[in-house]
Each structure stands twice: as C-alpha cells, then as structure tokens.
C-alpha cells in the first residue's frame, strides 16, 4: 500500500519506519525535508519517497499526519498545497497528532464536502514504544472505517481502540494525558518530599515501582527522573502543556470543573516560562525543587 505521511518528528520517524518495515511504501513530507538524502537514517533503507509538498500525499491510498498542533495540521490539509485540496473522493486521512476534538470535527466536516474522509487516531506512548510498535491508538471513525484502518494502525501500535466518531480519539487522548500529567507531577513531588525526609531518589523510585501506584509510566520514566542529563527527551514538556490546555479547553466548553487538570496546567505554564519547555516532561522536577534556573544543563534531544 502507498501511504502518505506528514510529520517526521520524534514520534513520526519511528511510526513511518514501522510502516515501511511492514512492506508499505511511504511518501513522506516534512517542512524541513529537502530530499531523499535528508531523510532520517531510519527511513533511508526502505521504500520511502520524499514529497515536495503535502499535495503529493493525496495520490496515496491513505494519508497520515503526525503533527504537533491543529494550526500546522490544518495548513498541511487545507493550505494552498494541502493534501485535501488535491485528494479525490474517497481518500482517507488519519490525524494521529493530538490536535483536539473540535479541530478534528472541523476537518472532517470540511473534507466531507469533497467526499474525503477524515478520522483521528492519536497515540499514547513514548518514542521507545513507537520504535517497538507498542503504542496505544485511540480511533475516532465510523465502525466500517475503523475495521479498514485497524490492520494499518496495528503496524504502528500494539492496541487499537475504537472510541467513537471523528474527534473522539482526540478526546480520549486528552483524558489519558490529563492522568499522565497528574502522575508526572505526583512523581516529581514524591521525590522532593522523600528527599526532604532523607530518602535518596533512587531508593524511593524502587518503592514507587513496587507499590500501589506502580504503572508502566512510572517504570519507563525512571531514567528521565533520576538521570535527566544522560537521558534523551521522550516527550517534550511543552507538548504536555499543549495537551493539558486542550483538555481544559474541552472542559470549558462543557462547564466542567477539573481542579487537578487546572492545577497541573498552571504548573506546566510555570515550567515553560522557566525555560523547560524543550526538555522532557519529567523536568517539572526541576521546578518543584526550585532549581529551574539550571534548566539549561538538562540534556536536550539531538
């Protein structure tokens, strides 16, 4: 199958690589991609072609976007050289970036005018899970389309959940990341609290990982919390802040009072203001400790 893929960031590269590894031909587009020689190493050995504009992705069977926000996704879909301006009736586009349910519903309604279908399938998991295909996909689509998309999504994810119509995938992802943000904040505060009482962070982490609060996230973020200088960024703090803000926006539309999300959102705002936005989300520990002035020492993703 020929698949268009827009967005070759930290998550997009390993996801596209898995599509290639499954025997698909990927037509790749990224604003920074100037030719085949500029492809990330993970994509150079397989069936990858480089598109000079998003419109060239419209010639594929299905196109995918893995982009950081709604504005960029809208540009790639509906801009002067956008995918959906060149796609014919029946083309399917899957929004896999976290852009918010309102944006996905808007994209789907606008695309439907040209008989083009938009679904969303944001994923939960880190870069390492993207590399091994162990992500979790939350899919917003009609049931028949979900059945069609599931085998393709299974090449990039371990589990695929149909959660409702277009936009529902984004709503589920925002709910998941609200819990993730709270857990991330909780680990940071627990480390600081225990350390104040004479417990070394590494010793506390062993307890956390064997206690009632143990979760996959606790385990795979161990190094980000305990050795930030020697551990690459898995998920940027600024992106978590964006997702929490989208969740609060959704809550506001329905007059929901979500004190946990509101509190964590304020902390993430402060962390970004302190210069930690490009660092891993575990860098909230710097803020909680009160040493965010040394944020520049944290290792950034190359």
Radius of gyration: 20 Å
Q: Tally the helices: what do you get?
A: 14
Quaternary structure type: single chain
State which percent range the strand residues make up: 5-15%
Mean pLDDT score: 92
Write the layout of secondary structure elements.
Blueprint lengths: L1 E5 L5 H10 L3 E5 L11 H4 L3 E3 L11 E4 L4 H9 L4 H4 L5 E4 L5 H12 L4 E4 L2 E2 L2 H6 L2 E6 L2 H12 L2 E8 L3 H29 L4 H9 L6 H5 L1 H5 L10 H17 L5 H15 L10 H6 L13
Parallel strand pairs: 1-2, 1-4, 2-3, 4-5, 5-6, 8-9
Antiparallel strand pairs: 7-8
Helix pairs in contact: 8-12, 12-13
Search tags:
alpha/beta; N-(1-d-carboxylethyl)-l-norvaline Dehydrogenase, domain 2; Rossmann fold; 3-stranded mixed sheet; 6-stranded parallel sheet; 302 residues; 2 domains
Provide a descriptive summary of the structure in words.
The chain has two domains: 2-165, NAD(P)-binding Rossmann-like Domain (Rossmann fold, 3-Layer(aba) Sandwich), CATH 3.40.50.720; 170-291, N-(1-d-carboxylethyl)-l-norvaline Dehydrogenase, domain 2 (Orthogonal Bundle). Strand 1, helix 1 and strand 2 form a beta-alpha-beta unit. The protein has helices spanning 12-21, 41-44, 70-78, 83-86, 101-112, 127-132, 143-154, 168-196, 201-209, 216-220, 222-226, 237-253, 259-273, 284-289; strands at residues 2-6, 25-29, 48-50, 62-65, 92-95, 117-120, 123-124, 135-140, 157-164. A six-stranded parallel beta sheet has the order 3-2-1-4-5-6. Strands 7-8-9 form a three-stranded mixed beta sheet. The chain contains 14 helices and nine strands. The protein is globular, with a radius of gyration of 20 Å. By secondary structure, it is α/β, with parallel strands linked by helices.
